[in-house]
Design brief:
The chain has about 300 residues and is of the alpha/beta class. The protein has a single domain, classed as Alpha/Beta hydrolase fold, catalytic domain (Rossmann fold, 3-Layer(aba) Sandwich), CATH 3.40.50.1820. It contains 10 helices and 8 strands. Helix 1 packs parallel to helix 4. The chain is globular and about 50 Å long. The chain starts with a helix and ends with a helix. The relative contact order is 0.13. The N terminus is likely disordered.
């Protein structure tokens, strides 16, 4: 009974906190400098002894508190929130297109919507998908007035971060105008031996329904109507097969024919493998995609 009361209290606190920070205010005490990163931002998780980490790049010309175009940028599995900063010239493109970059630290998160008794890979007290939806996005809205206007908000990621970007957009389609995944994995039923997926959902042979219905983007793709999608994969990627992006692109094109309202751009590079050389090559086209699909 005590655990139930604590759980109810935590949910009430989280609900109240989310309601308070989604009003589009600007409460952060430090004034960011346009054309630079604001680092070491702590993201509190109500009711939990845990704080997320975040860094934000404010492009040249940014005005504090303005409802700027916003792009959430996710790193790969067990990567760093600084990966895109360190390995690419993404800041220059953010300046060019006047887009704020929000880079959260997501560690080994698989962006799951829930944990199970068999879950061994627990990124934090909250599953990554729950953290993105109920903590991170409300935080940047209420604290920095970012991501408030869905027509100006996008999300992108590479590898597992690509999975996270598309899952987040599918769970919150009303919050995004565009989403992009590079070298991501989207169809768990074609990766039933993947140890990262088994670490969250258990073995496929024991939990087939779970694998089919929970966090399966091939199923959730129906939620991506009216969200512009960019998918890219290297043809020689042997870490995550290119078929992962191909299958999702085919599914979205099928939905477009059947129902309308779905938009997908699929890009495949012949030399591409699962590394920064390929991701740097793709980045300019991906940023142009966001410039074309986020309201100015």
């Amino acid at each position: 009974m005590r655990r139930i009361v604590q759980l109810v209290f935590s949910i009430m606190v989280l609900t109240l906190w989310v309601g308070c920070v989604t009003s589009g205010s600007y409460t952060y005490k430090v004034t960011p400098k346009a054309g630079s990163w604001l680092k070491s931002i702590a993201v509190p998780v109500p009711g939990k002894d845990f704080k997320g980490k975040l860094q934000i790049y404010f492009p040249k010309g940014y005005v504090k508190g303005s409802s700027a175009r916003t792009l959430i940028v996710l790193h790969g599995h067990n990567g760093s929130l600084r990966d895109w900063e360190t390995n690419t010239t993404i800041e220059k493109m953010a300046d060019q297109y006047h887009i704020v970059l929000v880079c959260p630290a997501m560690g080994k998160s698989m962006y799951a919507s829930q944990y199970f008794p068999e879950t061994k890979n627990k990124w934090s007290p909250l599953p990554g998908g729950v953290y993105m939806n109920t903590v991170l996005i409300p935080f940047i809205r209420g604290t920095f007035n970012l991501g408030v206007d869905s027509s100006k908000t996008g999300i992108m990621g590479l590898s597992t971060g690509g999975r996270g970007a598309l899952l987040t957009a599918a769970r919150m389609p009303q919050s995004f105008a565009a989403a992009a995944g590079v070298s991501g994995d989207y169809d768990p039923l074609s990766m039933t031996r993947n140890y990262l997926l088994k670490g969250v959902y258990g073995k496929y042979k024991d939990f087939k329904t779970r694998w089919e219905q929970v966090d399966n983007l091939m199923q959730l793709s129906i939620k991506l109507k009216n969200v512009a999608i960019f998918l890219s994969h290297g043809a020689k990627d042997y870490t995550i097969p290119r078929e992962q992006s191909m299958l999702l692109a085919m599914r979205l094109k099928q939905l477009q024919k059947q129902k309308g309202g779905f938009r997908v751009t699929y890009n495949e590079v012949g030399f591409g493998i699962h590394d920064w050389r390929y991701w740097r090559k793709v980045l300019p086209g991906m940023m142009k995609f966001f410039d074309e699909n986020l309201k100015k």
